[in-house]
Amino acid sequence: MCGIVGYIGGKNCVPILINGLKRLEYRGYDSAGIGIINNSHSDVIKNKGKVSLLEEKIDNLNLFANLGIGHTRWATHGLPNEVNAHPHFNTSKNLFVIHNGIIENYQTLRAGLKKLGYKFITETDSEVIPHLIDSFLTKGNSLFKSVQLALQEIEGTYGLVIIYDKEPDKLIAARKGSPLVLGIGEHENFVASDVSAILAYTKQIVYLEDGELVEVYRDKFVAKTIADKEIQKEVHEISMTLEEIDKAGYDHFMLKEIMGQPESVCNSMRGRIVLDKGTSKLGGLEGVVEKLAAAKRIIISACGTSWHAGLVGEYMFEQFARIPTEVEYASEFRYRNPVINKDDVIFFISQSGETADTLAALREAKIRGASVFGICNVVGSSIARESQAGVYIHAGPEIGVASTKAFTSQLIVLALITLLIARRKDMSLVDGKKIAEEMQKLPDKIAQILKLNDEIEKIAEAFKDSKNFLYLGRGYNFPVALEGALKMKEISYIHAEGYPAAEMKHGPIALIDENMPIVFIAPKDSTYEKILSNIEEIKARKGIIIAVASDSDNEIDKLVDYTIKIPDTIRMLMPILTVIPLQLLAYHIAVKKGLNVDQPRNLAKSVTVE
Ligand code: F6R
Questions:
Q1: Where in the chain is the domain with CATH 3.40.50.10490?
Q2: N or C, fewer C-beta in 10 Å, the chain?
Q3: The whole model's pTM is what?
Q4: 607 lines ligand 1 (CB under 6 A)
């Protein structure tokens, strides 16, 4: 959730930290701060609100230091204000700490430290960390040892970076449950919660694992476990580019990512479709195809948009692979007592690969002996690394907090997995080829839908003051109704609900009146006639209807108030098309309401706390 960046080297760290924080702002944006140490001056500068405000504050101070840390916060404990912002420090203000995660036993630690005379000035859980480390430093321990000893007392999750003015040749970083990477440069090194913060400076990355801490100098680093065992870490060269994480002329990352879907969908299937055999080739699943085909049950576990993708996956797997499939919120899965059999396989879907609930569910499933496979976007992320096998969706970095291109790419990967399993079972070559051919046409069809942007913007104008929205769809498009409603709520703050269209008469129909806009996802498929009946039911109650319908449908216009006409494809792939107008509708309504689309209130990309 929060963003972390740290630097040690020969350059002035201040602009490096500020640039890093700007890149990380999508992870949390209620306050920000930096802590710097140089020979003559150590300081902490913090501010409520965005990184740009912190930057303004810093601009006049003429700061220079070769060692520093920066943090952008998403509040868990304590209000988002300057005092609660990171870095936190000890009483002598010469030890600075930035923390991502939650210290679960902070109240006990705080009480103990208070008894030792430590004074607390913030409402955060994180403030115990500098004082706890300080309590070990005062006993004569080195910084590294003190951090190690402190971590032995801390329960909870953390990505931590610490600097200390009595040992200005190093920074210490530690990880448990919150992602942290090292960036290796020439006579300089970096620490960050994700690579986008340091990509401008290096592509040589070391991924820290849970339970590891590392002493980082200008020219080397030493990694150890909390129990003091030295470990060798591999340096990875990453392929991400700076262009991928820029707005590229768009007003918002979200719009760039919506508009980039012809390309991202193409990248997700590149080299993976075997057209003449009507199947797919997925390197990450090569060793487990037999296991997948023999599975008695598939479980898909995820959160939010990724969970919606999982629901579409359920329809695909059951229709074509003929394997019973269940989709479960990761947060529920991890805490109930799920029955897992040896022939079950479990897919964990996560754009970031760092979602705390999904990661915990994966670990729980592993303990129970399940086969756990990941479907992730972020290469090298925790879920990707801890899965036994898996598939990257290759959508490219997704920076907008509202997930868009990851969803369509997740669906592509689920369709590829369906082909892989179904062709091993009873799907015919003809049927396999048909699906593969239709998949290849998707990028062009998405591009066609994106040309409706202006038309959708006009519809957004008509509905920007709505207080509620209802989204209805059937079959494969029921999860799309959920996803459309989620997009609307999270960036427009308009209450929106998604339902299977037939469920409407079991309750939600009571909400319908002349002020209620209803988005029907109504392509011409086998449920079309039923959808028309549902539309009639709404019309009879004066609801206002926006229909996402097939290009070829000339009847629906007479029944509804607004239509968005899109190309057709086969049913299982339709969600990849129907979701696009819903993303654009939510986007334009939010922009018209003057809201910050890329950084909606209370949200953050990558939910690394429970
Ligand atoms: C919705 C959204 C969230 C995420 C959810 C899971 O637009 O962004 O609902 O989908 O937090 O995140 P990942 O996929 O990173 O596990």
A1: 248-450, 452-597
A2: C
A3: 0.85
A4: yes
